Amino acid sequence: MKQETAIRLILLGLAMSAVGALAVITTFIMKEGLPVIFRHGLGSFLFGTEWQPNAEPARFGVFAMIVGSAAVTGGALVIGVPVGLGSAIFLSEFAPRRVVTFFKPAIELLAGIPSVVFGFMGMLVLLPFIREHIGGRGASVLAGSIILGIMILPTVIAISVDALRAVPRSYREGSFALGATGWQTTWRVTLPAARAGIVAAVILGMGRAIGETMAVIMVTGNSVQIPRSPLDAVRTLTSNIALEMSYADGEHREALFATGVVLFVIIMCLNTLANAIARVGKRD
Amino acid sequence: MLEARNVRLWYGDFNALKGVSMKIQPRSITAIIGPSGCGKSTMLRCFNRMNDLVEGCRVEGEVLFEGRNIYDHYDLTELRKRVGMVFQRPNPFPLSVQENVGYGPRIHGLASGDGLRAAVKKALQATQLWNDVGDRLTAPALSLSAEQQQRLCISRLLAVAPDILLMDEPCSALDPMATQNIEELMLELKRDYTIVIVTHNMQQAARVSDFTGFMLLGELVEFGETQTIFTAPTDKRTEEYITGRYG
Description:
heterodimer, A: mainly alpha, MetI-like fold, 2 strands, 1% strand, B: Rossmann fold, six-stranded mixed beta sheet, 10 helices
C-alpha cells in the first residue's frame, strides 16, 4: 500500500513537470515581455510599423512582423491544405491497403526532417527557381509559403486521416447502397461528417506554420516591411526573435520577449479554438 | 425478377457461400433465416453487390436481375438505385431529415427544388414518418428515435424509387413495439415493392414473409412458402432449427 502511494506520487510529480515547464515559460516570457509593451503602449507596439531598436529613442512596432507571419502562414495554408486534405482523402477513402502501408510511414518521415534541412533545400532549389522563373529576389513570402506548406503536410494529413477514419463505416455503406459513387459519398457524406476534425487539422497546421522559425529565416529574406506582393521579402515574429536575440540587450531584449508574448497569445488562441472545435465535433 | 444461381463467395480463404440458388418473387416478402454466421447477410449483400466493398471478397455464380447477370459488367450505380438496402442499425447520415431523404434523388439528379421537396414528402409519407417530422425537416436526423431513424432510412431508400428492398435485420436494434410497427410497414410496402429480409428472429419471418429460405454454414438448406417451411419442413436440419434445437 505504501509502495502504491509512493509510485502514485512519483508519477504525479513527473506529470507535473510538463505542466510546470509550461508555467515557468509562461511566467518568464510575460515577466520579461509585458513591461516594455505597457511602457510603449499596446497600440503602438502591435500596430507600429517601425522596428528600430538602435534608434534614439528606440521604436518597437511589430506590425510588419505580424503581417509577415500572417502572410506566410496564410500562404502555407493555401498550399498545404488542399494538398494535405487531398492526400488524406486518398489515403483514407480510395487507396488500397498496400499503398497506405507505403505512404503513411513516408509522410511520418517528412515530419521527422529537421526544419533546417527544409530551409537548406529552399535556399538551394526554391529561391533560384523563383528568382529565375517568377521574379523578385527569390527570398519572399511565396518561398516561405511553399516551404511551410510542405512542412505542415504531415500534421494536416495525419489529423485529417484520423478524422475521416473516425467516420462510421455505416455512413459510407448507406451512401453506396443508394447508388452513390465513391466521390459522391466522400464529398457529401464523409467529409461533412469529419468536418470538425478537419478544421482542427487545419488549425493545428496553422499553429505549426506560425511557430516555425529556422526554415522561414532561410527563405523569406527577413526585411522588416509590409509586403506588397508575394515576391516581397518579409520577417516573421519568430524570425525576429531568433535573428536578434543573440546580440540584444536592455529594452531591445525585452521587446524580443514581447514579440514572444504576441506569438504565445496567437498560438494559445489557435490551440483553444482547435480543442473547442474538436469538442463540438464529438458532441454532434 | 431476382434470382441467385449457384452463388459461391469467399472472404479471402473462407468459403462463406457454397452454391446458393434462390428465386425471389415480385411483390412478396422473402425471409432468409439461419443461425449467426450462416451467410444469410452475405447472401443478401450479393443482391446489390455490397460485398464488393469488402477487401479480399470473391464471388462466383450468377445473380440475375431482370434476366441480366449483375456480376457481369453491370452498372453498380444503376443496380443499387434499383435494389436498395436497409441496414441492421439505422444509419441516417449526420445531416438533416430533409437532406437524408433528398440525398438519393440529388446524387442521381432525379429532382431538385420543388420537385425534390415533393419527393421528400412522398417518401416520408410512405413510411408514415411525415406526421412526426413533417414540421421539422431541418432537424438533425440523429436526433430522432431509433424507430424513426429506421423509418427515415427506408424513406431515404424509397426516394430513389427502387424495385427491390433488401433489409438486413432491420429490427434488431429496435424495441418490440417499434419492431411491430416496422413489420406493419413492411406488409404495407409489399404492395409496391419486392422485399428480401434477413432476420435471426424466426417469429418475425413467420409473421411477415411469404417465402422463407433457411441457411446453414453457407448453404441454402431449404426454400419454400413460409407456411410450409414452418409447419412441414422437409429437411431435418430446418425442423431442428425452427423448433429451437440450435441457433
